[in-house]
Amino acid sequence: MNGELTLANETVEKNTEVLSRWTGTNPDQSDGPAWLYPLRREAGSRFIQIGFPDRHDEEWRFTPIAPLIDTQFVAAAQNSAAEAPGIGNFLFPEMEGYQIVFVNGIFQPGLSTIGTEAGLHISNLAHDINAEAALIEPHLGRYAAFDSQAFVALNTAAIADGAFIHVSRNTNVELPIHLLYFSTAGDAPTTSHPRTLIVADEGSSVTIVESYAGQTDAVYLTNAVTEIVVGANANIDHYKLQRESGNAFHVATLQVQHDRDSVFSTHAINLGSRIARNDSNAVLGASGIECTLNGLYMGRGNQLIDNHTYIDHAMPHCASHEIYKGILDGQARGVFNGKILVRQDAQKTDAKQTNKTLLLSDDAQINTKPQLEIYADDVKCTHGATVGQLSAEALFYLRARGIPVAEARDLLTYAFAADIVSRIKVEAVRHQLDLALLQERAIEGIES
Amino acid sequence: MLTIKNLHANVQGKPILQGIDLQINPGEVHAIMGPNGSGKSTLANVLAGRDAYEVTQGEVTFLGKDLLELEPEVRAQEGIFLAFQYPVEIPGVNNTYFLKAALNSIRKYRGLDELDAMEFLKLVREKMNVLHIDQSLLNRPVNEGFSGGEKKRNEIFQMAVLDPKLAILDETDSGLDIDALQTVAEGVNALRNPDRGIIVVTHYQRLLNYIVPDFVHVLSNGRIVKSGTKELALELEAHGYGWIDSLEPATV
Fold first, then answer.
1. With a cut of 0.90, is the ipTM above it?
2. Exposed, middle or buried: residue A36 (CB in 10 Å: 0-12, 13-18, 19+)?
3. pTM for the whole thing?
4. CB distance A405–B139 less than 8 Å?
5. In CATH, what number is assigned to the domain containing residue B175?
6. Which domain holds residue B177?
């Protein structure tokens, strides 16, 4: 059955209007290289067909996006000279490494520090879709599912700019690469569709920090898609920091494609935005792969933070690890949905998933759902979820040493989050986040 | 320094302590022995102020204050230290930071200046040597991934740093091999002084070969059924805990 035929004209019109207003582009228009616009057009027409998910969609059941859909967004001003007030808070001045910066989706050479080293290519897609088509075409849009995911379809239809990182065979990039997507306040709520492509060839290794942030209180939507290709025996250490404005919406898909014996690890730190939805998907399509998806989410006020993870174990002898921890205060809501699929061929799979949420107020809530689908018989898969308050045992232990109860609570709350932050290997990032956590709990004097 | 009178306490509605009377003076080491379920750990935890224990009768005075009225942290600030039977792992809290926060809370309560990082480190280094604590242990999260022996040594190390007036060791010897036991005992013995009271709660007489008590009390069914000097522990060892069933509750 063809969905297109059954769509009411009204829906088609509405979706077409959203597509054009939100992306500011016409996917039918044949600008850019000839290989790209069919992809954009196809994605655009898929969006028109599928439209936005609603609450009948199981994957969006606990994340009502009406406030997002109802916002009259326009595509962010395509003004590359945009002022970016407050962007300095989200750069890492102490970090020795590369930074590539985008404001409202557009590459900012003046704010970026892109050095050169053998085997490493850092650039922006707007430039490279022409200049490096041979490197990009085989990957861009091949992994993230624009055919079934509305936001991925929108992003793909809008592909214009974003970061492109390519690491050549057996290249070990020592310095971390920071990607910053920053949004500013406009006259009207704006959207941008950051697109990132990271390709690590066989035997290479690289560290990537992907950050999303915005001007204080600005209303905007970031609709990001990141595709990561981890070549055979390659190793990618990835971090995502979501520190959007408190009035912003953040929807993002991370799609990881593993080749054999590759190692990928990500830590997703979600602190900002009014509604955040992250889909982190990894396809373990060969043997000997190790994949780590860890996360920390901290919500307060009316924030809603939704993390969906999906690990597809398709082949034998792969391991996946997941630890997601959250702290929710006020009326904040969290969603964790962790799906692990172990296909019939994926014998000797070792998959472990944990979700722990700390609720600091009576009104905070979390919907947590592990989803294990296992078709192989010789596997080790575990999952666990805990929701609750601070450990009474730990609280008593601290108090019994003379630490006052309020301070003990703060310390344990900090520690709960620090458990994830301490795993971050990029010192400047770890340090900055750690300070933010300490400040939030008004804890002084930890200099470890 | 510590006077316990007719103390009764429940755990989950079940009476565990059924009339404890005990007097501890500065400089004394008291051993409390008894079979499983006799109430010895309950007594230790009631003194430290653990929530799960409900005091139903009796009174406890510590240095002239009504101990049972005080929050656990205030008891610690007043000078009570409980070495936990099962030290709690606290991922994400660095051992050094934890100990510094504890020490400074106690100092602040007593109107003393808080120690800065340098002064604290100096103090810690001194105490570390006594207990053969490895430097790396300090930089790890509190008790996380510590072996059983490391956890117990860490308790005594904390005790050495916090310098309590009354230390309560709750089965600190349980599960230790002889080397670890000796290290722990050495640490405790180094902390014996004329001003400090020590309560050693133990299931096994073995510990008392290394930490020689001034008094031994035998607990059964929530009451002290026999009190004596260190020889009582040996007697108990010779007869086994079955022997105490034949004893009458001790008179005050």
1. yes
2. buried
3. 0.85
4. no
5. 3.40.50.300
6. 2-246
